[in-house]
Amino acid sequence: MNSINPMNSKTLKTYNIVFYSLVAAAFLFIFLTNPFLIKLYDPWRYHLASIAEFYNGVSGSGRIWHLVWAHVFKFFGISNIFTWAKIIHVFQFLLAAVVMYYFSKTALNILIKSPLSPLLQSGVSKRFSPQASRRGDLTCGNDNKKINELRTIQIKFLSLFSVFLWFIGNGTFSVAYQQAWIMWYSVTYQGLSIPLFWYCTALTLKIFYVEMSLRRILLYIILIAITSVIIAKLHPMEFLYYIINLVLILLVNSKRLLNIENKKYLLISLPVILIIMILAVKYLIDRESGLSILFTSNETPVQIIQKINIMGNEIVSTLNRFPNSFSEVARVSIFAAVLFRIVYLFRKDKSQDSNAIYIYDYLLVSSLVFVLIPIIPFLAGAVGYITNPVLVWRCFFGSPWFIFLPFIIYNYKE
Amino acid sequence: MDRPGLYFYLLLYIIIRSENIRKVLTENPIYRLLIKNEKIIISSRKIFITLSIVTIIVIAILIVPNKSSLKHIVADTLSFKTTILNVKSIMNSLDDKKVGTQYSNACIESIGKLIKNSKQPGDGKPDILHVREQHP
Q: Greater confidence, B4 or A228?
């Protein structure tokens, strides 16, 4: 991409046309796909049946997701179950695509456009400053604007690539079928809760890494609160991913949080988010965590650790579906990310005054933690006690591994 | 020690301590962060995070059970089957026969039956709807 002359507006226009054509093709593809409705499998047997229960006024034990869809279909007078499935499938597939694009674009924007991004080669980073470009106080303001536009379209392409990786790199296996995650979960409540989790994470990244007005930060906090409540009601597992992510952002950025000059907004937003989390855990998740039961029992700390280890070993050796969800492309992506970080360690011309390295470290640590949970017995046991032992392998779906491959390819291309 | 001497030492002590007290009050990180709103440069080890990442990887390699050993992960990665199967599954979704959308009218009937037979409040019938046999 860098071989083109950034001054050439025709090239930029061509890039834009190609990009929007790809987006249109992707939308068309999503509309043409079908939901996975093999009889006796969850989407058909449990989810559509639960919606049908609510639709027919039978008091079922379905969740709020089923209730809402039943009311939507009743409102529009749609009674065909296949039409229900297709509508839910297309809606959730599209939502997943849009939200994953938003998350990828947010993360890549901070990684690539961060002023004097130390992750980029020095020659490239010195040419470009988004702040200066916005202020328009450069002598070569027009050039800078063109470079900015070029970089924006490049980020759009990279985000699209990330979304593609996310769709093909997450999967699951049941009985005789290896399915892409979206195909399996498109007609379940997780088809909604996982995209919402990524949306929450993207908003949190913006609060942490992008300079914003207080009004906008408040808006994002309200959005995070509403989304957290929906996630906690739909499927609390994704809520756990979000809490783990929040803790990791705080840990990885602890030094940077002290360094930034105007900490007022951040210091206000952090306790607010934490209070929302505590309230959501306390009042919206109706089952008590096994871990709290374990800690309030009369067991000694050594016995607790032993119990966690025993459960962890059982999860890893018998209940784990890790090899079917953790795809090869994800392995390659994370391996490349670790290599990049080690190479960066030995780079001499790096600047410390940037958000880019902090977000990179957060994404890398988060990826590794979510990938290691289903592999390491102790972590698997701890998460098994918090949630459900048979669901620990799903933690892989909380890993932002799909950001690295596009970013690293871009970085070396530049 | 006579009394004036004691007071002298006490005064000296207070002066020394007051400097410390002033320092504690004005130079502590919380005061600087919240009230003076200034930058705090903490001398951290630059390689700390990288070292932690390397440590996590080493621990992971040491602790992972035989089933998911590094050798297996590398072998799986080279065989490259999950991702290909996932692409295949997305492509298969274009074929409604392969994903069972047009399974049969029997499916609609089966849902109807399930709803009919499902537990009504207080009717004592078994709750057959929520026996989940094939959870992914």
A: A228
DSSP label of A317: I
Query: Residue A401 and residue A368: Cα distance in Å, rounded?
Result: 9
Is residue A2 within 8 A of residue A148, CB to CB? The reply is: no
**Partners of residue A369 in chain B, C-beta under 8 Å:** 56
| Chain B neighbors of A338, CB-CB under 8 A | 53, 57
Instruction: Return d(Cα A374, Cα A389) in angstroms, integer.
Output: 10
Per domain, the residue ranges of chain A are 9-413
Q: In the Cβ-directed half-sphere of A302, how many Cα atoms lie within 13 Å?
A: 0
In A, minimum Cα distance to B115 occurs at A53
A313 vs B64: CA distance, rounded Å: 10
Tell me how far apart the alpha carbons of residues B69 and B75 are, in angstroms, rounded to a whole number. 10
Asked if residue A173 lies in contact with residue A179, where contact means CB atoms within 8 angstroms, the answer is yes
Partner residue opposite A36 with nearest CB, options B56, B67, B100: B100
Which tens digits make up the pLDDT trace of A222-273? Answer: 899 889 888 888 888 888 899 889 888 888 877 777 666 666 666 777 777 7
In chain B, where the domains are located: 3-34, 48-130
Tens digit of pLDDT for each residue in A382-398?
A: 888 888 888 888 888 99
Q: Measured between beta carbons, which residues in chain B are less than 8 angstroms from residue A270?
A: none
- ipTM rounded to 2 decimals: 0.77
Q: Say what the pTM is.
A: 0.78
